[in-house]
Structures are given as structure tokens and as C-alpha cells.
């Protein structure tokens, strides 16, 4: 950290900052300039964070210069991680050596709709099935998902099709039942800073798909991953799904730069959700191609056998033809980026 | 709702939209133009929302033209509401006839610190005491609050000082213990779209202070209030606390226009939090004055007897002198806006 | 400035930074920590800015810690400035001792409409008349203003009514004709970073009203003012008119905090434009009240004798009754903030 | 357009809207619902825009449902356009059949630096040379470019290397001298809404590279292109260069979705500037790959023979090795998207 003192800070103000820092066991280096004094701090970030130096007299500003996260940081873990999802025979990797397609319906509606979507997904090369049983909706009048019934359908379809299941959890209270049925727990964009939920999935013993909050900086997102990691779970996959900006021709603005930025800062895998980022079916395949080319570890897309009758986000769901176009794009582009696109190891 | 068809939409496409609308019991009015056809829908918003018309062939766009909320809307409840907080002898109003000051420490640290902050608050004319026992923090390494111990301190201070208590709930799991100790439940900015928590506070039988999500549109915020109202609780007070923008000289950007915009659309009371909006002590009093003048029903501010040693948000906490300046501003300005500033009724 | 070196920066990298700084005549203070080295720089900001230190090997980050502007900074000019507009007999102040109302039509349409608007403005206590002759419009198909004909109308109305005139300049090519007819030159939000125009108004010998770019940080806005000041013109008044955010219930988001933030950093006067910030007539008076209360030096509002037939921004123009409500608000609130509201000195 | 009336709009209010529409020669279709009346308008957008319907009594809202631009719209010109730049022997296409690399120094500093940068660019497959002679800079203390001297250097390098030159114009006053030396005129992000400049380049008889305003919606950007087209110049290439958001790990947020969105709405070519979007050299190649994959018609990048000593934007300039990596990416990816990467036609 660097403390910038005000131009009129007194010697006593400077001494008070140095004193508080040194009491905590950290070191302070004072640089006295003509106009201002700067104090560089060296010590444990978490501890320095608690010193409340900004509130001391004479302090103009505090600049943090190291990342506030540790467990998910690449500084302490230079090799990028691979997260494995699923049980024996269906385990699928998400990480630097492969390009992973996750596909399925936005919401589980019926057994048949889910099964058909899963068949489409598998035929397109997906190695994981997504599907929502608990849906967080802006309107209390919108379809909220089938709940436990939806989880059961997902379990049945998994047994039939052989793809591990990713599903969202919206309430820490449901952690046991969701963890029982799912292979990977998704934390959605609205819950990225729901710290109670982050701690619950950190202890549930399953890999986690952590979507970026639509308003979250990359640093805040990595801090949310740190909450999960702190509870002993490092099997976290990040998912860029668009941020909120002034542009309204797309539902959100896909922050494609987040992929290489995260890969520089963190060892965790990162995938992209072009369906929710855009909200428009015609943009899903182009954005998925961009995700491959920028170096993402995978994509997650909405698929529906009959988008016109989907109960949730029909306008962004891929149908069969679009999905084959996506599959072709993955097959042609991903190898150029040094990635396998085959299924799970045997 | 208005459905705009694509220029090349066929007669069958138009008929399909009309058919789906009429099946649902709503009405459809078709306007055929030279370039495009427009279909106006009349019926229940919640139901039309579920029709997924945007996914039908030939549909270019769907414009919603009425508010998606009902219970909190001013359209059905033209008179602005007053919410009363606290028990016999300490009940305090928040609403159109009064200007309410809510003050207290960002985080409860000790009994003495909380008591001193409460004394400062009361001396300045506050009729409610705020104080955080459960703190949602971006960093897992930051102080997370005293939890139940903090709730007990708040209860003791309430008994001594006689101010009803507002405190944040971050986990639906804690609803009983928080509702037992608090007079008003606060839902924080990060949890505004935590629908499980909204439903829990909707059923807890206590008034709710609902902060705006830092990324939420006003409409989404009112939808969050609708979630609470749907569970039978209309005692909801909205709190504008700044939104996230590109400007970084303040922690957030206080959206002062939200106050009159909300008052036009909803009957719920609305207050302003200048402390969290700005993150800077020197801005709290000017922004509080702006809140009074724009027509807000109150303000909520951080107070600390010793900001230099606060464990949370010290740089934005008011100390004694600032608080007296705020009290003077309220006394001089609020009556000009037609508002009482006295305490609770006897 | 503070240079943060990468964890793996070599001694040679550090020496190279120090060398480049010292060659320029500035000083460098090196603080070696366990993980990182920090180098504090002391010298002229403008010169350090040109050193391109961020491009040197081993440099992780460069933090600027002093403001990049000088002439408009309050650090070198602690007393807040008053800008006087207009000639003998009509001179009007904008600054810390007064509260200035500027009013008039968004666009000059006819002599009669401008005269009527000016009469309304004067009756409400305005001491300056605004009116657009050159209109920057998003659409090339929208009304672009009367041009020089509009300037002449403004000049005639000024002669009749006795209010100095503020009008926008959109093209440096027009500087002579606009400066000839106007008492104050307005630079609009779209041109805040049109540096050629800033330099032209800096040399024109008339006071300038500099609107904030809808996308500009406060620092960039003050840098734009610095461009004008550099050409010898310190008679610059800043105007906050809303920034672009995700919220769409108002045309822009009025950044009310910008007023006290600017007043802390710069000695220049600052006023607020509630008409363009909101785009809604019903919000203009509440937001103007907020501007007074937060400590602004004035407001500028659109007035039209017949808003329903305005050629530009009719939905936000005040008509007679609204304007009287605004006048009453100014009379009651401004004195409480220590401000005169009387007209120009004799 | 669709006019939504307020719930309490009277029959006279509705008649007044219909009357004003019909007087203008357009048609109005009235749909009376239980709660509200909706009026659909059919006619010329430009004319309807001028009717100021939002200001009429009883009008709640006005929704525009067709694009406000015509000349650049794909609706009237379904085939995507190719713009050719340069004279005999060096003409280079930008459009749907090819993928164009534009490279060169951010700022022209010396003849040698420009020549070396041009040699690097040509070796990497660039078919156009970029270089700034007039630089718009946030700080008046930063290097502002060599001006006419820089244009001459660009002309000399063009003669030596044989690449057409793209350079920025910042002041309409310079239009003749810039058009004399350059093959393509660039309008920068800060000037996208400088309508005087747009009109000047519209009449200059040279192709235009129109960067997106960092705060502009896609629709506003296309309206800026319409300004140029209106003056008779349809040789406009759009350039996405990042928008301003809350995320600060990159200089701007590259809106990669803008590429397919623009291609749906407009026939104009669109390229991407990954250098200015990110401000970070390590992100330029990944983002350029994303641009290719999403379907852009080209990229424009900063190149410098010695980035450590660049006078402008050194941290984002590619040096030799990075540029070869970019060239390889273009060669391998662009053909998969159906694009030629060869040089200009003979």
C-alpha cells in the first residue's frame, strides 16, 4: 500500500501513520517530497486493510498496489488450474488444455424438453449439461423454476445421457438438496456478492461455476472467488456473462477483455456465456467464436428444442441448427488456440 | 405492451402473435403501417410477461408500456405511504409528512462505542438508530461484524436510549434472530436481488429498509420491493445509496433524481444514504442537504464517536461536530419542504 | 507520482526508472519492500507525464497523486472565484456569494418566442438569458438552429430586456460572430473534449460556460477548463448537466456530488442544469432545489412560452407557472446557504 | 413510432395527437385499451421526429420503433459495402470479403520512427498505415503532435513504403491540408459528436474512419455516420474502440458485440481497435483474435519501433515480435471466417 499525505500534513500526522503501521508488525517507508510526503507500506494485505489508515488526520489517499486476494491469485500459484466436473466415466475438464462446451435449457420445464435439449447438447459436443431448477427472476410474477422437481429431472436426464449437470443455487438453505443432485453448483450474477451463499458453496464439496456480477469489477469477482476458496474449495470456474453499461442494443455488454485480464491475475479457469451477455440468438455464435479466439476455457449456452415456447429467455436460446454451427466453430477454431475439444477422459 | 413486427413479417406471423395473446385472455389491436405492423396488447402485465412473444417468428421488438409492479405502484395507490417503525413510546414515522434522521455506527464494535454513537444520534434529532451486526464485506479478510453479539448490544442500547433499531440482515437463515432484536430489517445493496432474502423479510412481520442495488435500475428496485410486498409486507422504505458509474471521485454516484422519480411511480417512502453514496465525510452534509431539498423522506448516516479508530468505513463517518451541522441543516431546510422534524408521536 | 515495480523487476529496471526521472530534473525516492519496490517521484506533473514511465521494463503501475491541472486548481488559488458576465449596467456575477438563475429557450425560434421567454426569465429573477442559435443535434434531420439569424435575435432581445446573453458555440470557425453577439460562450457536452474549440474560446475574450461531457470524469472536465485557462482566459464557469449511466428513467444521471467535489478541487464557479440532466419538466424544480442546497453557484434552465410547440426539448422546458415555483424556491432556500439572489450590481 | 397516452388522457388529448400527426402527412392508428390508449404512427422518421409529440398533454411516452438513420441503414441497402482506400497501385479494401490490418505509430514523432513503424507494419501484412499528426490529448501539457510537419512525414513514408495513409483530423479548419496529405480521414472518439467536423469530412472527398465515441450508443454512432453520408460521402468505415464503463482494469471496455450488431443494422464496414480499447500491450493480440473471430472487417493497432521511448501511448504499442504474432493470428483465423488477407489489388 502507498499512503499519500495531504500537502499540509504535519510531522505528527506522519508519525501517527508510521506508528499505527509498525504496531501491526508491518513496515513503513517515508518519502518526503517538496509538496507531499508518501509512505510505502510492506506487510500482509489483509492486515493492512484493517488499519483504517484513510481515517487518520493528514491522510489524503490510500492506494492499494497488490491484489487483495491470495488463494485465487496467480502470483502464488503460477500454473493455471483445471477443474474436473462429474463422476467416474463422465468427468469433464475445464481448464487451459481444453475447450469446454456447456449447454442446456435456461430453465428445466419438463422431462422431455430437458432430455431433448440434452440430446442436442451432447450431439454438439457438450461435455456438461446446464439447466435451471431454481430461477432468480427480476419479476415475482415470472416463472421461478420447478425447484426440487427440476433437480430430479436433471438427475434422470444425466442418467440417460451421461453428462454431468451444472445448476444454479439461489438460497443457501437449499445447499444439501442441490449438491445431492448436481455435479457443479452455479452462483448467478445477482448472487455474486451474496457472501452467505458463497460460503455455503465453499463448503459443499462440489465444483462451483461463479458468474460475474453484472456490476462487479474483475477484482470484486476474484474476491468473491476468494470467499469460496477460503472455505477450502479451489474448484472454482469463473464465467464472464456481460456487465451493465449504457449500451442497450444488447442485454448486457460482454466484457471479452475480462478473459485475458483474469488469466493474468488468477489461476482459475474462465468461460464465457454469450447467451446471457447478449440476450439475442443471432449474436450467440459470433460471440462464442470471439470467446474461443480470445482464449477462454469454454462457453456456456442456452439450448431449447422449441425456443418459441420456452418459459425463460426463449429469444436467446439456440435451436438445433444454430448449435451445429457453434459446434463447427469450436471444432475449427479451438485447435488453433492449442485446445482439445474431445470429451472427458476414460 | 406493444409488439413491433419485422418489416418482412408475414400475415401468419401476425396471426400467431394475436392468437397467443387472445388465448391468454388478453386483447390485441393490430395497426398495419406501410413499413411495419404494430400490435398493441391490453391485459394483465404478469400474464403477458409469460407469453414469450419476443421468441415468435416475425417479432422485432416488444415494448412494455406499463410498470411491471402492482402492489408498490402509485397507480393503484395514489396516496404516498407512511411507514411506522418501533414499539409503543418510540414509534417513528417515515413518510411524506416528516423528515426522518436515522443515524448510528456502520458496524457495532463494542457496547460503549454503540452507546456513544446512539447518544450523538439522539442529540442530533435522530428517531431511529442504525447499526450493523452482520456486515457484508467485499473482502473475506475484512471485519465481518459481531453477529448475534452485536444484535444484543443494539438491544441494550435501544433500552437505554429509547430509539428503535435498524440493522442489516445478510442471510435468510438469520431471519428469526435478527427480527427478534431489530425494529426494522435492512436489505443491503448487494442483496437487493437476493430473492430468497426478499421473501424471508416479506414474511418476518417487521418493516424493511430496502437499499437500491448499486447496479439496479429504479424499475428493478421497485420489483424487489414488489417481492417483499407480495409476501404481505407493505411496510417497505426505499433507500437510494448511489449507483455504480465511471466516475471515481466518489465511491458511488448518488442518483438524487431517483427520489422524485420513485415518488412519481410508487407510494413507498424513500430516504437517502449520503455516507455510502460518497464514501467521503466532507460530502455527507452537502448531499444530505440536497436530499432534503429534493424531497426525500429522510436520510441515514454513519456516525462514530471516534472515526479514526472505526473498524468499518471510518472515512465516511460523521463525528460530533459534523452531526450538529447536519441537525441544523435539517431544522432549517425541512420545514420549507413542508415536513415535521420532531420525534415520534406520543 | 508513485511508480510500483513488478515483483520480478531487476535492480537494473529500478535504476532505469530512477535515471529517466533524474535526467528530467525531478527526484525519485526508492522504497524497497519484501515483495515489491515503490518509487515516489517529486517534480512538475506536466513534465513527469511526458516521461512515459509506464512503458519501461519492470514497471507494474503508475499512480498519479496530484491533480494534473494547475491554473484551475484550488491548491494554487485557494479563494473561490467569481465570474462576471455582461456589460455596464447588466453585469451579473456567478460565484460563491450569489445564486444565479440563467434561463431562456433551448433554441431561438423567433423574435417573439425569444422575447417572451426572456420576459418570463427576467420576471423569475434570472440575471442571464440563455438561448441556442447553433444547436448540436444527434440527428442530422433535427432542427439545427437559426445560426447567425438566431444570434441577431438574441442581441435584439438583450437590448430590449437588459439581460446578458449566453449562447453555445459548436464550431471554432464561428468564434468571431458568436463572440460579437454573446456575452458568454457556452461549450456543450458533446464538445467538452473538442480541444480546438476549447482553445478558440480561450482566446475569444469572453467568459465561458463549460458543460461537463456526459462521459467525462470530473478530472477530465477540469482538464478541459485548463485548456481554456492556458490560453489566458480564467473566466470559466463549470456546468454539471448529468452523466451517462445505465439508468434510463432520466435522460442522464445528475451527478449532484460533482458540485462539492469540484468546489474542493477548483476555484472555478459551478452551476447545475436540471433541464438537460433529467429531460423531464416534472423533475426540474426538485433538482434545482437540490442544486441550491448542495451549494451550487446557480442553475440554468430551459424556458419556453409554449412548450407544446417548442422545436427543441419541449418536454423539459418550464412554462410560466413552473418558473415561478422555481423562483420561489430560490428565494427561500438560497439565503439559507449564505447566498444573495438579487440582480446585477449597478 | 408508438405514442403511449397517460391513463387519464382525455379524448381531446388523443385527438390533438392524431391531428398533429395527420397535419404532417403521416398516419395515426389509435388502439384504445382498458387502461391506456396507444397510437401507432406511420410516416417519415425525420419528420415525425420534429413533431415534438412528447410535449403534448396526455402523452406518457414515445417509443421509436424504426432506426433514425437511412443512408447508412442496411434496411435500404442490404448488401454490405466495401470501402477502398488509396490511389492507383496501393488501393486497399475494407469490407466483407477481406480482413484488413491497419498499423502504425500512435503519433508521428520523426521520419525515422515513422518509417521503421511502417516497415514493421508492412512486413506484418498491413495494407494501410496509421499515424497521428494532430493528437487530441486530455492534458494540455501532453504532446499534441507535429501537425503539418507530421503530415509531410507521413506523405514521405507513403512514397517510400507504398501504403495509403490514415490520419486523424481534430479541427475542421485543417480539412484541406489533412485531405491533401492523407488517403483516409480519421474522426476520433472525442469528436464523434462534433457535427461541424463530421460535415467537413463529409465534403472532403476522402474515405472516413469514424471511431465510436467512448460514451456513444451504437445508434448515436450510426447517426454520426449519417451526418457524413448526408454530405455525399458513403465511404465510411466504423471503428469500435471501447466504451467507458465502471471496469478499470482496462482503459475502456471493448464492446465486441458491437461488430455483429452494427453488421445487422448498417451496410458500412466495421473494424476494431484493440490498442486503445485496452491500453495494454499484453491484451492487443488476444483482442485482435476476438475481433477476427466475431466477424470484424479489420483491426487497427499501434506499432512503435521503440515503445519505451514513445511520446504517446507507449504502453499499448506493439513492437516487432508482438506484431508478428498478430500477423500469424490473422493468417490462420481470417480464412476460417471466409476472408482474404492478401494485399491490395493490382
In brief:
The first copy, chain A, is 33% helix and 17% strand. The first copy, chain A, has 346 residues and is an alpha/beta fold. The interface between A and C is medium-sized, with 25 and 24 residues.
Low-confidence stretches of chain A: none
The N- to C-terminal Cα distance of chain A equals: 48 Å
What's the architecture of the largest domain in chain A, going by CATH?
Answer: Alpha-Beta Barrel
CATH fold title of the largest domain in chain A: TIM Barrel
Number of self-contained structural domains of chain A: 2
Total DSSP helices of chain A: 11
Helix coverage percent of chain A: 25-40%
CATH-wise, what's the superfamily of the largest domain in chain A? Aldolase class I
- How many beta-strand runs of chain A? 14
| Sheet having the most strands of chain A | 8 strands, parallel
Outline of chain A: elongated
Strand content of chain A: 15-25%
In angstroms, what is the radius of gyration of chain A?
A: 23 Å
Which series of helices and strands of chain A comes N to C?
Answer: EHEEHEEEEHEHEHEHEHEHEHHEH
User: Tell me, what is the CATH class of the largest domain in chain A?
Assistant: Alpha Beta
The chain-level structural class of chain A is alpha/beta
Oligomeric state, counting identical vs distinct chains:
homotetramer
Mean pLDDT of chain A: 91
Amino acid at each position: 500500500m502507498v499512503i499519500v499525505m495531504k500537502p499540509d500534513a504535519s510531522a505528527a500526522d506522519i508519525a501517527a501513520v508510521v506508528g499505527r503501521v509498525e504496531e501491526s508488525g508491518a513496515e513503513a517507508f517515508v518519502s518526503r517530497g517538496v509538496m507531499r510526503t508518501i509512505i510505502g507500506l510492506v506487510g500482509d494485505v489483509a492486515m493492512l486493510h484493517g488499519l483504517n489508515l484513510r481515517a487518520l488526520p493528514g491522510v489524503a489517499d490510500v492506494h492499494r498496489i497488490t491484489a487483495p486476494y491470495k488463494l485465487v491469485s496467480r502470483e502464488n500459484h503460477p500454473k493455471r488450474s483445471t477443474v474436473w466436473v462429474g463422476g467416474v466415466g463422465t468427468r469433464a475438464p475445464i481448464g487451459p488444455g481444453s475447450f469446454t462446451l456447456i449447454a442446456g435449457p435456461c430453465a428445466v420445464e419438463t422431462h422431455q424438453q430437458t432430455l431433448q435439449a440434452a440430446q442436442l447438447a451432447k450431439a454438439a459436443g457438450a461435455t456438461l449439461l446446464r439447466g435451471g431448477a431454481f430461477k432468480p427472476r427480476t419479476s415475482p410474477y415470472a416463472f421461478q423454476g420447478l425447484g426440487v422437481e427440476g433437480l430430479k429431472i436433471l438427475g434422470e436426464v444425466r442418467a440417460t445421457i451421461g453428462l454431468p449437470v451444472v445448476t444454479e443455487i439461489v438460497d443457501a438453505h437449499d445447499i444439501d438438496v442441490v449438491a445431492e443432485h448436481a455435479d457443479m453448483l452455479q452462483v448467478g450474477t445477482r448472487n455474486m456478492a451474496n457472501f452467505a451463499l458463497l460460503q455455503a458453496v465453499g463448503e459443499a464439496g462440489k465444483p462451483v461455476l461463479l458468474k460475474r456480477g453484472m456490476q462487479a469489477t474483475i477484482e470484486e469477482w476474484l474476491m468473491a472467488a476468494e470467499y469460496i476458496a477460503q472455505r477450502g474449495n479451489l474448484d472454482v470456474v469463473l464465467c464472464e456473462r456481460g456487465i451493465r453499461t449504457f449500451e442497450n442494443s444488447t442485454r448486457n455488454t460482454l466484457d471479452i477483455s475480462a478473459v485475458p485480464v483474469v488469466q493474468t491475475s488468477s489461476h482459475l479457469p474462465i468461460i464465457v456465456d454469450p447467451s446471457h451477455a447478449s440476450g439475442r440468438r443471432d449474436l450467440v455464435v459470433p460471440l462464442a467464436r470471439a470467446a474461443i479466439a480470445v482464449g477462454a476455457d469454454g462457453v456456456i449456452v442456452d439450448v431449447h428444442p422449441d425456443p418459441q415456447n420456452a418459459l425463460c429467455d426463449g429469444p436467446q436460446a439456440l435451436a438445433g441448427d444454430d448449435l451445429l454451427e457453434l459446434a463447427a466453430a469450436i471444432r475449427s477454431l479451438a485447435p488453433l488456440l492449442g485446445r482439445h475439444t474431445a470429451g472427458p477422459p476414460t
